[in-house]
Amino acid sequence: MVNVVTVTGGSGMLGASLVRRLRAEGHVVHSVDLREPDELVAGVRYSVADVRDPVGIGRAVADADVVVHTAAALPSYPADEIRSIIVGGAQTVLEAARAHRVERVVQISSTAVYGLPSVVPTTEAYPREPVDAYSAAKAGAEEVCERFRDAGMCVPILRPKTFLGPGRMGLFAMLFEWAEEGRNFPMLGSGDVRIQMFAVEDLVDAVLVAMRAPADVANDTYNLAAAEFGTIREDFQAVLDAAGHGKRVVPIPARPAVAVLDLLQRARLSPVYGRLVHKLLADSYVSIDKARDRLGFRPRYSNQDAILATYRWWRAQQTTARNTRSAGRTSREPWRQGALSLAKAFF
To answer: What is the pLDDT of residue 314?
Structure first.
């Protein structure tokens, strides 16, 4: 059994969920992040350090049996910062782990490395074809991991789809806000494309499986996503139904909408970045057969389970914020809607 686990990005949504689970299962846990955690978990050691800082990261991994590297940049960051944090951070973490003879480093990557794949379900054999700074950095970090693998380290690479659950805000907060206010919600095109997502609880399960699997099984690259998923229209409609106002997903012509969103994004008036816009126009799902067959991993939650759990958490947070006049959790900040908020008048 693994005894000591260091989690980078331990104050983030995934990192915090992982820290709580590891500690609950009796592991010695060291959480390292640039900022203090929103909630302290009893018995967890916390450090503040940048993943690009070899001294701070060296201290954080010095006693670890396993490192789980969840720290990353958001797609909304400047391109040079994205690459520095994601690629540079992976290099720093792996160098520190090798220097301290850490047995295993679990790298949290992303299916974004495939770019906008032309084949679905997309398998791990599909080439890395990044289309923006974020996907290029995730691909670059995987290349770093593979070099350390070639040098003899055990480096499982996990590629989750967009993961949801308590603590997740970002663009989903816009859907939740519009639903709560009793508005219809616009959808690019018909919304009949199948967009696979993933519950954070399932991702935490997968990390633990990768930590414990035999090295020859773990030392590989795995897609992770929900096994049950429908269309994006069905998933978004489930949130509107849960809000209880009788509102609907409203299709809007895709081509004009994409042109407007691209223009707004370039002018920094919208948080909806290019890859996300174009991903919503075509089926986007991956094969999880390899994780099932080699790791024995089976997700427990569907797309709708994940998105509705996130909505329920968001709703509770909004009630708490109103009652306490709190500014909210820093790791759970909604994206600023920018010019998109003006569209509310039409829905």
So the answer is: 92
pLDDT score of 339: 46
DSSP-assigned beta bridge partners for residue 251: 187
CB 142 within 8 A of CB 308: no
Check whether domain 4-164+197-224 has CATH 3.20.20.70, yes or no: no
Q: How far apart are CA 233 and CA 188, in angstroms?
A: 10
- Paired tokens of 130: 């990044």
pLDDT tens digits along 271-296: 555 556 666 778 999 999 999 999 99
Q: Are 51 and 28 in contact (CB under 8 A)?
A: no
Contact 121, 175 (CB under 8 A): no
Cβ atoms 73, 135 nearer than 8 A = no
Q: What pLDDT is stored for residue 331 in this prediction?
A: 35
- What parts of the chain have a pLDDT lower than 70? 1-2, 254-279, 319-347
The ranges assigned to domains in the chain are 4-164+197-224, 172-195+228-285+302-346
Class of domain 172-195+228-285+302-346: alpha beta
Q: Is the peptide bond before 160 cis (omega within 30 degrees of 0)?
A: no
